[in-house]
Write a structure and sequence with these properties.
Layout lengths: L1 H6 L7 H22 L6 H21 L4 H9 L4 H25 L20 H31 L1 H16 L4
Helix pairs in contact: 2-3, 2-7, 3-6, 4-6, 6-7
Length: 177
Amino acid sequence: MATEEASGIGEDVPVTHIAVFVAVALTVSGGVAAATIVNTVSSVTTIPIMITPALMAIVLRRIQGQSVRRTVVRSLQGTTLRSVAFAVSFPVVFITVAAAVALTSGLGTYNPGGGEFSYVGPVFLFPVFLLLAGALSYGEELGWRGYLLPELTDRVGPVAATVLVGVVWALYHFPAL
């Protein structure tokens, strides 16, 4: 019993808070995408979309009288060196394979000019760019893995919670597609 109380498991977060998290995340994603996407997705679109889950998790944890630290810890649970290596390498491999298929099949062309997401600046500042990009990306994880997934897992179990978070995550990213 002491372990459950120390970890925060078993504390009832109101279902309305979970619903607010989902509703605000989907509304912000759709609203920002509708207001900012014209021909391509820009940083004006991605930054608010990527930090919304983190902000919602932090606000809701504070409203619930819980520490933000708990949310951060829960978002990192189960993380191993192997899982981090996979998280970093999988997108690189996936994008490389997709680009190769697109180029060899004629479905895509190479654009050497880059886009708005390319880094333009002094080489010595590139690590700062990577750090900021990583922090923005972690904002999503803080919300999805640190708040929504654990709260749904406590209610419906790990498999159903993973499926539900996957559906919400897909709907959240759909407007930017």
